[in-house]
């Protein structure tokens, strides 16, 4: 059984972990069908790379940093503080150049920075532990650290839009096969300033749609236009690359399917018997 604390830390038991892995295998098969090779990226991301994406302007409430503790000041603190130590005060933390990413795809764009891709673009997939400084947490539905599988297209505009269509169709078909009552809800993308021309365009062509089951978003399709291509100087042939992605929150899928089928064993059986 999952154990959870108010601070967003949860534990997956053996049955849940088997369901987790079976779900990710399904998502990886989608990636293989689209010729999207799998990459594993560093767990941390440089703050300068996040700032390149205006991250701290657009997501100031989500940010989490990874910092070194000063050994001398820490030693002094430990001799004076009540134990166990439940807080690390900022005065013993060193300035940091690294952060904990809140999405898996950022590392893909950073990795491709300054490159020229084939004119028809490329695909990538990765899974990452992502972190978000939320205002509240709730079991597997909302975690401090969670697993995100993304399948990303980087290339020409039409290719990015086609990936959105393929991804949306694939996700909805999966939900139907598993008997999930899913709603598609349009969301806004904070990467686009609400007063910018790109923000106005997203009202004509939605850039983010979420797959929502019982009020919980378990995945999304996202179109970033040429935002990341511009910020990372990624070319697709002679043009700035556009990007789009399909994202799944793995723990949220474990929660949702367990609710749908009554227990993890029945949910696992349903996933393993997918066509």
Structural features, described:
The chain is α+β, with helices and mostly antiparallel strands and 275 residues long. The chain has one domain (3-43, 101-272): Bira Bifunctional Protein, Domain 2 (BirA Bifunctional Protein, domain 2, 2-Layer Sandwich). Helix content is 36%, strand content 24%. It contains ten helices and 14 strands. The protein has helices at 14-33, 47-52, 55-58, 71-80, 106-111, 157-177, 197-202, 227-231, 250-261, 264-272; strands spanning 3-4, 10-11, 45-46, 65-66, 98-99, 116-117, 122-131, 145-155, 182-187, 208-213, 216-225, 235-236, 239-240, 242-249. The strands form four sheets. Strands 7-8-14-11-10-9 form a six-stranded antiparallel beta sheet. β12 (235-236) and β13 (239-240) form a beta hairpin. α1 (14-33) packs across α9 (250-261) and α9 (250-261) packs across α10 (264-272). The longest helix has 21 residues, at 157-177. It is globular and about 60 Å long.
Q: What kind of assembly state do the chains in view correspond to? A: single chain
Supply the CATH superfamily name: Bira Bifunctional Protein, Domain 2
Number of domains: 1
Q: What's the N-to-C terminus distance? A: 28 Å
Mean pLDDT: 92
Q: How much of the sequence is in beta strands? A: 15-25%
Q: What's the total count of β strands?
A: 14
Broad shape:
globular
* Estimated helix fraction: 25-40%
Helix-strand pattern, N to C?
Answer: EEHEHHEHEHEEEHEHEEHEEEHH
Write out the strand line-up for the largest beta sheet, numbering strands in chain order.
7-8-14-11-10-9
**What low-confidence regions span 5 or more consecutive residues with pLDDT below 50?**
196-205
| CATH fold assignment | BirA Bifunctional Protein, domain 2
Describe the biggest sheet?
6 strands, antiparallel
Structural class: alpha+beta
Number of helical segments?
A: 10
Per CATH, the class reads: Alpha Beta
InterPro entries: aa-tRNA-synth_II/BPL/LPL (IPR045864)
């Amino acid at each position: 059984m999952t154990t959870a604390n108010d601070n967003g830390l949860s534990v997956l038991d053996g049955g849940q972990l088997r369901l987790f892995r079976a779900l990710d295998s399904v998502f990886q098969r989608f990636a293989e069908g689209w010729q999207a090779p799998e990459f594993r990226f560093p767990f941390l991301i440089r703050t300068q790379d996040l700032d390149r994406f205006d991250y701290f302007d657009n997501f100031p409430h989500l940010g989490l940093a990874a910092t070194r503790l000063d050994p001398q000041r820490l030693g002094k603190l430990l001799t004076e503080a009540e134990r166990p130590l439940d807080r690390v005060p900022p005065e013993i933390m060193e300035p940091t150049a690294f952060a904990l990413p809140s999405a898996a795809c950022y590392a893909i764009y950073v990795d491709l920075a300054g490159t020229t891709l084939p004119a028809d673009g490329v695909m990538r997939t990765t899974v990452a532990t992502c972190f978000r400084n939320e205002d509240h947490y709730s079991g597997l539905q909302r975690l401090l650290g969670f697993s995100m599988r993304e399948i990303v297209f980087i290339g020409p505009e039409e290719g990015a839009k086609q990936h959105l269509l393929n991804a949306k169709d694939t996700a909805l078909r999966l939900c139907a096969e598993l008997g999930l009552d899913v709603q598609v809800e349009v969301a806004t993308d904070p990467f686009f300033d609400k007063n910018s021309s790109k923000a106005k365009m997203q009202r004509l062509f939605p850039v983010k749609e979420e797959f929502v089951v019982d009020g919980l978003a378990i995945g999304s399709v996202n179109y970033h236009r040429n935002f990341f291509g511009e910020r990372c100087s990624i070319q697709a042939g002679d043009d700035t690359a556009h990007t789009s992605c399909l994202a799944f929150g793995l723990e949220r899928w474990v929660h949702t399917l367990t609710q749908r089928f009554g227990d993890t064993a029945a949910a696992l059986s349903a996933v393993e018997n997918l066509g």
